[in-house]
Amino acid sequence: MLGDAMGRSVWAPDLEDWGLMGWDHDYFERANLDIFTGRGPCIGGPLCRLNLTSDGSGAHHGWFCDYVEVTSTGPHTECSQTLFYVNQWLADDVPPYKLSAVIDGCSGKGGPTRHRHTGPLVVGKPVGSVSD
Hints:
Layout: E1 2-3, E2 9-10, E3 49-53, E4 63-72, E5 80-90, E6 100-104, E7 113-115, E8 121-123
């Protein structure tokens, strides 16, 4: 789920349905960069909330997510880019033992948030950042 500061959201119930990597690509595997695209209702920019959830299915179902980068655009609208630093396992057998990660930069409580007119909104704190 992706959301804006006004509480509007877009939900992709099966992210693999939005996958661009080809029929033989194995999504959510170690060292993979997975790319997705999809269409949804127009919501405000920049997107500032992410709920990333694994269904926990399959053998060795856990996966580590470094970051999610989202570019949003629509007809007659400016492009908006958000970089969500997740840095978390989505698994029930390794810490933090959660199948979901919620990153909220809309309320200012999701960690350091930076937005420049010339770059993306950055939500969360990258590993190894100056503030570590």
